[in-house]
Amino acid sequence: MKKTDEEIKAEIAALMAMKPGVRSHSIFGDDNHAAIDAQLRVLTEQMSEDAIYAAYADEDAGDFDQYILDSADHAYFWMSGQPDYEAPSADWMSLVKPTSDNGIHH
Question: Does the pTM of the predicted model rise above 0.85?
Fold first, then answer.
């Protein structure tokens, strides 16, 4: 079942709160912050799958990034209610550096 507007707003707030605490790049060089930004865009704009592919899947574009596309897709599948997808913030939780000011506690 598709997520409600309230659930989507809560997920947007969670992603925004945790983004500053997530290391900017993975050990593989993937841009975590750009991936979170893509997820935020998908959720904020409630993008369709076609819109996501138009925005992130142009392999001929010099800036195509499979990691960012996969992250955007994850947000879409969660938002659409696909049963195998946890909230995007759940995936980032293990990468958040706990601090006293970001409200994230492990």
Answer: yes
